[in-house]
Write a structure and sequence with these properties.
- The chain is an alpha+beta fold and 254 residues long.
- It has helices at 3-9, 25-34, 43-51, 133-142, 144-170, 173-188, 205-212, 216-228, 244-251; strands spanning 54-58, 63-65, 72-79, 82-87, 93-99, 104-108, 119-122, 126-131, 190-191, 197-199, 232-234, 239-241.
- It has 2 domains: 25-166, Sandwich (Jelly Rolls), CATH 2.60.120; 172-252, Arc Repressor Mutant, subunit A, CATH 1.10.10.10.
- The chain is 43% helix and 22% strand.
- The strands form 3 sheets. It has a 4-stranded antiparallel sheet. The protein has a 4-stranded antiparallel sheet with strand order 2-7-4-5. A 4-stranded antiparallel sheet has the order 9-10-12-11, with helices on both faces.
- The radius of gyration is 19 Å and the shape is globular.
- Keywords: DNA-binding, Transcription, Transcription regulation.
Length: 254
């Protein structure tokens, strides 16, 4: 292995919280302000929403909910990271998303999801705010602007679902992998002094396959080529994007 390659593989991993914790009020208020549903609300309005939510915490590996269970809560992630997986017909779980603070997730039957379509599990010690259907209905009634954003979001999800079907059916595996890595870089990446971007998450080939509608074998071939070309480097619990411009070229290739 070259000196540069050895240096890349010694990417330091930040430590995470060792024990579950509850979310202090300043953290809750900050993340609620980041949720698109609640954008533009003043502090008193956010406080009203906050008091309707329950603060909960989970240790690494703990499930928040499982696919197929009744959809009875929405969550706002306040701290840590959460992995979202969907079951396949063969009984395997494939990674579909990695959530960060400020992300809204979960489902409610009143929003068209009678059961959770996916499972959510804490990747690190995590804290989230949870709201039940009755409390969420009260929020929609008392804050009409939130209700309008919810309608927009439901319509947007349908449009994105149609777009994803087209992307998966027409784009090459390399395009889909590049697009996914760029999206994760924007959501989770840490900029480094050498210009690279570090994704400090365990991201297996099976995970990438699930997120790109491909197979682990195809993803492995693409990642090997990206490493050989100096576009990415990776270890067991991290991936570094070394050449984002080249990755964008691959994602946008006709």
């Amino acid at each position: 292995m070259s000196t540069d390659g050895a240096a890349r593989r010694r990417v330091p991993l930040r430590s995470t919280c060792a024990e579950p914790h509850h979310c202090p009020r300043p953290v809750r208020m900050k993340v609620l302000g980041q949720v698109p549903y609640f954008a533009g609300l003043d502090e008193s309005e956010l406080a009203d929403i906050d008091r309707r939510m329950v603060s909960l915490s989970w240790a690494e590996g703990d499930p928040l909910y499982e696919a197929g269970a009744p959809a009875d809560h929405l969550y706002v992630l306040a701290a840590g990271r959460v992995r979202v997986t969907q079951p396949t017909p063969t009984g395997q779980d494939v990674l579909t998303d990695i959530l960060t603070p400020g992300d809204l997730f979960g489902a409610l039957s009143s929003l068209g999801e009678p059961r959770y379509p996916e499972s959510a599990e804490a990747m690190t010690t995590a804290c989230a705010l949870r709201i039940d259907p009755a409390a969420f209905r009260a929020v929609l009634t008392e804050h009409p602007q939130v209700a309008l954003r919810v309608l927009d979001d439901v319509a947007g999800r349908l449009a994105r679902a149609r777009s994803d079907v087209g992307r998966i059916s027409t784009g090459s595996v390399a395009q889909r992998v590049a697009t996914t890595l760029l999206r994760l870089s924007g959501e989770l990446g840490q900029s480094r002094a050498d210009g690279s971007t570090l994704l400090q998450v365990p991201l297996s080939r099976a995970d990438l396959a699930g997120m790109t509608g491909s197979t682990p074998e195809s993803v492995s071939r693409v990642m090997s080529r990206l490493r050989q070309d100096g576009v990415v480097e990776s270890g067991r619990r991290w991936t570094a994007i070394l050449d984002a411009e080249r990755l964008r070229e691959i994602a946008d290739a006709a």
